[in-house]
Amino acid sequence: MSSGTTRILDDLAKLMTDAAGSMQSAGKDLETAVKAQVERWLNSMDVVKREEFDAVRDMAIKARDENDALRARIDALEAKLGGKTGE
User: Fold this and answer.
1) Which of 1, 52, 66, 69 could form a disulfide with 5 if both were Cys (CB 3.0 to 4.6 A apart)?
2) For residue 49, with 0-12 CB atoms within 10 Å meaning exposed, 13-18 middle and 19 or more buried, which class applies?
């Protein structure tokens, strides 16, 4: 091959590499833009984040367990008192 043909092929390879890099960059930019738009949309709908939901759910489970334990203690105390409930 002549050096002219080699140079053309080198330039073509560089052009293809640059194009692939540009496409990858454009894809990342698009992904970032879509994520930002979806986040704005969800925020406008007052949708809670998963982490917040999980935290509140865990608090509710703990409160229910504590209530069950307290109910058991009350029942045991009432049984000791002969079923009197302060009526």
Assistant:
1) 1
2) exposed
CA-based nearest residue to 26, from 34, 36, 14: 34
Please state whether the predicted TM-score (pTM) of the whole model is above 0.90.
Answer: no
Question: Tell me, what amino acid is at 10?
Answer: D
Pair 84, 78: CB distance under 8 Å: yes
Does the structure show a pLDDT above 70 at 54?
Answer: yes
Q: Write down the domain spans for the chain.
A: 1-46, 48-87
pLDDT at 1: 53
Contact residues for 85 (Cβ-Cβ < 8 A; gap 6+) = 78
